[in-house]
């Protein structure tokens, strides 16, 4: 039984869509609908929102490892905020919250991307339920021991990543897709609680990250080129060995030399801090149930 | 004769395209080409670039009125920087620089937008020259006494505004269009200096701003809705009286009640500070020469 659900927005302060969906539901609670669980609307990083930045000191969504939550030597806004959120929604490992839905956006045209950290029946059925009812839904898996995501505070969780939208911008198409996804997840939870879930698909395809490609840099560490126009905006398509992936400022092209893979977060503006060009994943089929 | 030209990038610190075009030309000066004028590569706001922000204290591109440049009571990074730039490239009114090309990007799909502040023959011929040689070029006019733009430091100037790209992002398609536009402007200046300009078009259509539409707000001053999906991404198209322009969070639509006009900078991320939804302009035909 899922009793306590937190809908989280603003884990990244410049991703306005989730933040304003919370705002809408606070102002018009009837639009949430009737549910057989308690719903908490939770704004994660208000200071980053006010600064219109992803974060002030450290990415909040990389700050929820148990080792970090219990490390008193870590300072800065997000490290303290993570501990505070862990008290409010958690604590991780023995959480008062059963389920967290964490709302994000991307500057890449990812469509609707659901990120899981677990492949148990509950999470696979949830992802399948949404994918069967909306267009352009992809599922990715970021499995790791002691996860750093905010949502890992609760035992059940899903991250909703929708794009493309610029940072600090509210697009109705992205907003509407976010709300539709959230309402489908609510519907799934209601049916789950009532033991009325429909038969799931036999299997589901999930993208599993195995590596990241970095932007080319020069001897000073400065960016030396750009994501190739032939790769830009091709999120969740297959990148083949031998394709050009970068155009250098000197005019040369860099050719991809590696296993064929699915690429996403292509040229994501939020990833320039680390000079990441795109994420690389393999597609794997999971049997459901 | 145009002897001294400044190519300016980074007037807004999170618009990377112009900044990296300067970077490219510094590293590979041969790619600039041969010109019959002196070219200076000028990075305007390095501190804002390092902070990945449009500006620190005040929009630099609103800080070049003569009254502000001579006002010693104005403090903050950009007010001081404007005075410094005015010394380096200007001074405004008696400038050592003949021409400034100022490179910008927009999060809206503006295509290639050339912004003029003057409609003399030189500027009309320049805009026409580019428009005849590239697709999807629009010309806008922002005429005002004692202009606040950085480029107004030099008597001849053009602002190049290209989109769509997110802030803090480098897209090859936008970068390539920016470089192509810059090279066409260089070509125009070379021909102008040699008295070899080709016959211009008879006339040119220019968008003239007359108003700005603000986002809807509630009693607290918070955003109460979004740019309507039917308006989003329609930059430089005609908005007609009676069309929906906003979708409020309560589900209502706001209908446009005003003169038919051309809209641009639709849902521009940089304009959320002022809660601007889009700019409104009239199209006017100018005879050239």
Description of the structure:
Two copies of one chain form a homodimer. Chain A has helices at about 15-25, 45-50, 65-70, 75-90, 120-130, 170-195; strands spanning about 5-10, 40-45, 100-105, 110-115, 135-140, 155-165, 205-215, 225, 235-240, 245-250, 255, 260-265, 275-285. The first copy, chain A, has six helices and 13 strands. The first copy, chain A, has a ten-stranded mixed beta sheet with strand order 2-1-3-6-4-5-7-13-12-9. A three-stranded antiparallel beta sheet of chain A has the order 8-10-11, with no helix packed on it. The first copy, chain A, folds into two domains: about 5-200, Zn peptidases (Aminopeptidase), CATH 3.40.630.10; about 210-280, OB fold (Dihydrolipoamide Acetyltransferase, E2P) (Beta Barrel), CATH 2.40.50. The radius of gyration of chain A is 19 Å and the shape is globular. In chain A, helix 1 (about 15-25) links the parallel strand 1 and strand 2. Chain A is an alpha/beta fold. Helices cover about 25% and strands about 30% of the residues of chain A. The interface of A and B includes residues 172, 173 and 232 of A.
Features:
homodimer, 289 residues, alpha/beta, Aminopeptidase, OB fold (Dihydrolipoamide Acetyltransferase, E2P), 6 helices, 13 strands, 24% helix
Query: Mean of the pLDDT scores of chain A?
Result: 97
Return Rg of chain A in Å: 19 Å
* Strand residue content of chain A: 25-35%
CATH topology of the largest domain in chain A: Aminopeptidase
- Strand line-up across the major sheet of chain A: 2-1-3-6-4-5-7-13-12-9
**How would you sum up the global shape of chain A?**
globular
Give the oligomeric state: homodimer
Give the termini separation of chain A. 18 Å
Helix and strand pattern of chain A: EHEHHHEEHEEHEEEEEEE
Which regions of chain A are unreliable across 5 or more consecutive residues at pLDDT < 50? none
How would a crystallographer describe the biggest sheet of chain A?
10 strands, mixed
Question: How many structural domains are formed by the residues of chain A?
Answer: 2
Organism (chains A, B): Kangiella spongicola
InterPro entries (chains A, B): AspA/AstE_fam, Aspartoacylase, AstE_AspA_cat, Aste_AspA_hybrid_dom
Active site (chains A, B): 161 (proton donor/acceptor)
Domain Succinylglutamate desuccinylase/Aspartoacylase catalytic (chains A, B): 3-187
């Amino acid at each position: 039984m899922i009793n306590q659900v937190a809908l989280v927005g603003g884990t990244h302060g410049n991703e306005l869509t989730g933040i304003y969906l919370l705002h809408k539901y606070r102002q018009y609670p009837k639009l949430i609908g009737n549910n057989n669980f308690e719903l908490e609307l939770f704004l994660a990083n208000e200071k980053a929102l006010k600064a219109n930045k992803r974060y002030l000191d450290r990415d909040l969504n990389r700050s929820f490892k148990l080792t970090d939550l219990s490390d008193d030597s870590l300072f800065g806004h997000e490290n303290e905020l993570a501990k505070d959120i862990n008290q409010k929604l958690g604590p991780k490992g023995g959480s008062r919250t059963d389920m967290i839905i964490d709302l994000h956006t991307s500057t890449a045209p990812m469509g609707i991307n659901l990120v899981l950290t677990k492949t148990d029946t509950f999470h696979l059925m949830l992802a399948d339920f949404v994918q069967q009812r909306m267009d352009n839904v992809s599922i990715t898996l970021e499995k790791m021991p002691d996860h750093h995501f905010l949502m890992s505070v609760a035992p059940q969780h899903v991250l909703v990543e929708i794009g493309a939208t610029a940072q600090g911008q509210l697009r109705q198409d992205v907003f509407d897709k976010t709300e539709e996804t959230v309402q489908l997840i609510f519907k799934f939870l209601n049916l789950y609680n009532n033991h009325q879930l429909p038969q799931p698909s036999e299997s589901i395809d999930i993208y599993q990250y195995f590596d990241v490609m970095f932007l080319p840099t020069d001897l000073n560490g400065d960016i030396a080129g750009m994501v190739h126009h032939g790769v830009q905006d091709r999120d969740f398509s297959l990148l083949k060995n031998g394709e050009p992936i970068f155009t250098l400022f000197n005019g040369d092209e860099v050719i991809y030399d590696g296993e064929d893979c699915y690429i996403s977060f292509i040229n994501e503006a939020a990833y320039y801090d680390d000079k990441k060009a795109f994420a690389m994943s393999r597609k794997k089929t999971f049997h459901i149930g």
